[in-house]
Write a structure and sequence with these properties.
Length: about 500
């Protein structure tokens, strides 16, 4: 194989841009100023920085442990004794790992400072990042021209002098930029990056482009992945967003997305980065309630009155537009559920005519219920399940302003329900709502003269976020895809239930 010189981003990038992230980012920027000086928000950012510092090394397999250890370190801080105790590695190794993570923590803090200084991205800054990443890494194994492995001193903050082409699992060799072309390739990359930054390219596209082209060059002898993720984070921070945290659970998707970008398709990497940012924004919005609790009553009162005089009526009217979107999406849901119910009940009529039909099928039918128009008396429906699922996913479910649901019930010996819920996100109504999908089983309880709820399960891998700034056609397209996937998971869960019943 030969090295293929990097190319500029294709002029046609509309398909790479993420309208959902664009709208959500604009909502976030409108409310960010209210949060960023609070202690809770600073704690949130500090924990996110720790997570970034830990995960960027795990991705490179500089150290490994289960997610539980990562969560403890995020919450309690980077400590060698804690690492040794929780991960089971030696004290000496734990001390080295703690030093590496703390180096990485200093780097992410430095990225925030770099953004505040509004400095341009340069060779010097990128080399400085590398030197900081490798402060506690002194050697690297390289392959000589004869094919032999040789341990050499790692050049910290200097571009590579030897080839660093990795051997893939299939036995092939991936060719990175030869050392003699690194300077020119980096010149091209920085020039293209500055040009796109000045023309206002969307951050998910710009970060994916910078990250991928940088990894194609692989300008340093080692540490390129960590520097690439720092550069991608820098793009998001410059746009008022959050560091790019690629978690170990996303490692396979991350690698596959990079390989697809090698083949010319940058969209999977853009989508991964956009989804990553969406999670961070929604988590930040969900901390607002705990921020406002400790404030003195007088401060809250004065602040609220000031907001009321200046912003409330106009802004509330804008943000309430999301309720109309929720009603529209619920109508879409109802139509889809009714279509499936019609197909289902027609098929059941034929099955029931079969002689000797199994008893569970004798009672089998399906019905639809929809709590339309945000009926205040019915906002408590499934509240406990929604709250528990929200906690698992990591967001605050708000039922104060809006909560409605549509659900499909399949009656057999028991009642299986597939629920789509629409409700607010964050303690304060900011014009952001979500839809979640889940299933549960209701078992008759004669003593209670009712039923017990068993086995509630999420049917949606991710919540569906929508807000008042995203164009409705874009929301419709995203929702139709999300709803189809969610109902498919829900019906798969019912298939397991009916299989158990027919075997009893």
């Amino acid at each position: 194989m030969e090295y293929h010189f990097i190319s500029d981003l294709d002029a046609v990038v509309d398909t790479l841009r993420n309208s959902e992230l664009d709208a959500l980012s604009r909502v976030w920027r409108e409310i960010k100023e209210e949060l960023e000086n609070s202690g809770e928000y600073k704690l949130f950012v500090n924990k996110l920085q720790r997570e970034w510092a830990i995960e960027t090394g795990i991705i490179e397999r500089l150290y490994t442990w289960d997610r539980g250890v990562t969560e403890i370190l995020i919450d309690q801080g980077i400590d060698a004794a804690l690492i040794a105790h929780k991960s089971g590695i030696s004290q000496q190794r734990a001390a080295n790992v703690a030093s590496i993570i703390n180096d990485q923590k200093n780097i992410i803090e430095g990225l925030f400072a770099f953004v505040r200084g509004e400095q341009p991205l340069t060779h010097h800054y990128i080399r400085q990042l590398h030197a900081e990443f490798t402060a506690h890494q002194d050697t690297i194994d390289v392959q000589t021209s004869e094919g032999n492995l040789q341990t050499i001193t790692l050049l910290k903050g200097e571009y590579k002098r030897y080839q660093n082409n990795p051997l893939r699992q299939d036995g092939s060799i991936y060719i990175y930029c030869p050392p003699e072309h690194v300077q020119q390739e980096m010149d091209n990359l920085l020039a293209w990056f500055v040009d796109k930054e000045e023309t206002g390219e969307k951050p998910e596209v710009l970060s994916a482009f910078l990250h991928h082209r940088f990894t194609q060059i692989h300008p340093f002898q080692d540490g390129n992945g960590r520097v690439a993720r720092a550069l991608a984070s820098l793009v998001f921070l410059k746009n008022g967003l959050f560091p790019l945290v690629i978690r170990d659970s996303e490692r396979n998707e991350y690698i596959i997305s990079l390989e697809k970008a090698d083949a010319g398709d940058l969209k999977p990497l853009c989508d991964l980065f956009a989804r990553n940012q969406k999670k961070s924004i929604l988590s930040a919005i969900s901390i607002e309630q705990s921020i406002q609790r400790p404030q003195q009553a007088e401060v809250i009162l004065r602040s609220s009155l000031e907001k009321l005089k200046i912003h409330f009526q106009a802004e509330a009217s804008r943000r309430d537009e999301v309720f109309k979107i929720a009603q529209h999406l619920q109508r879409m849901t109802d139509r889809q559920l009714e279509e499936y119910a019609t197909i289902f009940n027609n098929e059941i009529k034929g099955i029931k005519k079969i002689p000797g039909v199994l008893s569970p099928l004798a009672h089998l039918h399906i019905e639809i219920f929809s709590n339309k128009n945000n009926d205040q008396n019915k906002r408590s429906y499934f509240r406990r399940q929604i709250t528990e699922f929200a906690s698992q996913i990591g967001y605050f479910a708000n039922f104060d302003s809006y909560c409605s649901c549509s659900y499909l019930t399949i009656h057999s010996n028991n009642r299986f329900q597939c629920v789509i819920s629409f409700h607010g996100l964050g303690p304060v109504h900011q014009g952001i709502m979500v839809a979640t999908g889940f299933t549960l089983l209701r078992i008759p309880n004669e003593e209670k003269k009712g039923s017990d709820v068993l086995d509630p399960r999420l049917a949606s891998a991710e919540i569906f976020q929508f807000n008042y700034l995203e164009p409705i056609p874009a929301i419709e397209t995203r929702f139709a895809e999300w709803l189809n996937e969610t109902l498919s998971v829900g019906f798969s869960e019912w298939h397991k239930v009916i299989t158990r019943e027919t075997m009893q």
